[in-house]
Specification:
Radius of gyration: 22 Å
Keywords: FAD, Flavoprotein
GO molecular function, one term: oxidoreductase activity, acting on CH-OH group of donors
Number of helices: 13
Largest sheet: 7 strands, mixed
Distance between the termini: 32 Å
Protein name: Putative glucose-methanol-choline oxidoreductase
Helix content: 25-40%
Number of strands: 21
CATH class of the largest domain: Alpha Beta
Shape: globular
Pfam families: GMC_oxred_C, GMC_oxred_N
Cofactor: FAD
Structural class: alpha/beta
Oligomer: single chain
CATH topology of the largest domain: FAD/NAD(P)-binding domain
């Protein structure tokens, strides 16, 4: 454990949400697996090495961040927090596990991606929920802030639901399903890697930053790794990239796999011209709205904190704007930070779930430690649909906040505030203050052979390169109507099964 071997049958690049799933599934059947994680491996669940903010499920994790942000793309810097540690972004997230809607995955299958329909994926969602120890809050479990919005939601046409993950339901407000046990955020290192750590056929190496993939005669044969101050080559039979939406494309680009024009500028020799690498970046634009609160709400929350469990997030609403006639395209997320001592905040976030705007991830240079250029181009669609959907969501939240039962509890709106009550002023505010929902996808798009911008096929194989797969949210052609934590687990489950199918077929003919 921790020593860098010279070779492995399967090399998984990235011990994050999806990568750990792939690694565990391969190791379970006896295959030789090496996991290379750019950040530290803190060991199994319960180890004292785990940082408190990562295991504390009452709040979002922040330590061991890659430090990515929007740079000078917008009037102010937007943070794109990504965990550089074993567990990846399952270390950081708010523990909300949503699946989306049937139309999300059926649309992938209808575009020619065989095996990716809702019915194909539902067993993987169910298995992911089981492995991640997910449970659903009851209404009686909600904090006063969460319960107040849950109770008021029907006034805005969102019925109270038991949970959020019926893929045939549309609008509603429900307690969340969460990967939390005894206050601990259950990440994929705990859920998937821990059961296989004792096996002799899996090795997990932390602080191992993969620079690039080596391709010989059209086949991926190894990776170049920075580890303990040295640059080392590790030979591989099959390589699975699972660096996430920001890092998987940059590994490809440094490997000479991507748009030729971009590679030429950086003097990176061309291995495979794939113009879609780093393109199609999208995330769900977000607005965090805040209210002044009230003495009654403050006292109720203090009592809840004194009684014990009082997390920041517990309930969520989903609704349809006028632009979505299939299902829903908005999330509402009550948020009540409990760790901001002396700085109470009474907030609800709203997010537009089906953005039309597309951005990109690009290299600044060939140093693997250099931060890439990340530009989501939030709210940049020429038709202005994304900003219109977000504005409609904000208006719906204001309608709920004005409910006679809720209004005395939430108080006056303080952000974005009364000066944006006019729609044009609200739209201007949104354009000036872009923000993200921390769910980037799409930069190694999965598509059919006639899609020039696709990077992998329906079996997650990189076009033109044998022995190289991608297993993370970067392969999603379009984001589902979901928080992407559980879909990321499903990406790992799906790609692992594709690999195991091929192992079984090879063994059957050997």
């Amino acid at each position: 454990m921790g020593a860098l071997p010279q070779e492995a049958e399967y090399v998984v690049v990235g011990g994050g949400t999806s990568g750990n799933v792939v690694a565990a599934r391969l190791a379970e059947v006896g295959l030789d697996v090496l996991v290379l994680e750019a950040g530290p491996d803190f060991g199994p669940e319960g180890s004292a090495a785990w940082p408190a903010d990562i295991v504390d499920a009452t709040r979002l994790g922040r330590s061991h961040d890659w430090g990515y942000d929007s740079g000078d793309s917008y009037p102010w810097r937007v943070g794109f927090e990504r965990a550089r540690a074993i567990g990846g972004c399952s270390d950081f997230n708010g523990c909300t596990q949503t699946w989306g809607h049937r139309r999300d995955y059926d649309s992938w299958a209808e575009a020619g991606l065989t095996g990716w329909s809702t019915e194909d994926l539902l067993p993987l969602f169910e298995e992911g929920m089981r492995r991640m120890r997910v449970h659903t809050y009851r209404a009686d479990d909600l904090t006063p802030w969460q319960r107040a919005w849950y109770e008021a939601a029907p006034a805005a046409g969102m019925p109270r639901l038991a949970d959020l993950n019926d893929v045939d339901e549309s609008a509603g407000f429900a307690p969340e399903a969460v990967n939390i046990v005894d206050g601990v955020r259950i990440n994929t290192a705990f859920a998937y890697l821990d059961p296989v750590r004792p096996l002799p056929n899996i090795r997990i190496v932390g602080d191992a930053l993969v620079d690039r993939v080596i391709v010989t005669n059209g086949r991926a044969t190894g990776v170049v790794v920075r580890h303990q101050g040295e640059t080392v080559t590790v030979r591989a039979g099959t390589i699975v990239l699972a660096g996430g939406t920001y890092n998987s494309p940059t590994v490809l680009l440094r490997s000479g796999i991507g748009p030729y024009a971009q590679l030429a500028v950086l003097d990176i020799p061309l291995v495979q011209h794939l113009p879609g690498v780093g393109e199609n970046l999208h995330d769900q634009p977000f607005l965090l709205m805040s209210w002044s609160g009230s003495e009654e709400m403050g006292a109720a929350m203090e009592r809840a904190r004194a009684a014990g469990w009082c997390p920041d997030e517990q309930a969520m609403g989903k609704a349809a704007s006028s632009f979505d006639t299939e299902a829903f395209d908005l999330h509402f997320l009550p948020y009540s930070p409990t760790h901001l001592i002396g700085r109470k905040r009474w907030s609800v976030g709203v997010s537009a779930l089906q953005p039309r705007s597309r951005g990109f991830v690009r290299l600044r240079g060939t140093d693997p430690e250099a931060k890439p250029v990340i530009d989501h181009r939030f709210l940049a669609d020429p038709e202005g649909v994304d900003v219109a959907v977000l504005a409609e969501g904000a208006t719906m939240l204001r309608e709920i906040a004005a409910d006679p039962e809720l209004a005395p509890l939430v108080g006056a709106e303080i952000h974005p505030g009364p000066e944006t009550f006019d729609r044009d002023a609200l739209v201007a505010h949104l354009y000036r203050n872009p923000d993200n929902y921390w769910h980037p996808v799409g930069t190694c798009k999965m598509g059919t052979g006639d899609d020039a911008m696709s990077v992998v096929d329906e079996r997650a194989r990189v076009h033109g390169i044998d022995g190289l797969r991608i297993a993370d949210c970067s392969i999603m052609p379009r984001i589902p109507r979901a928080t992407t934590a559980m879909p990321a687990v499903v990406m790992g489950e799906k790609v692992a099964r594709l690999l195991l199918e091929e192992v079984a077929a090879w063994r059957a003919t050997s």
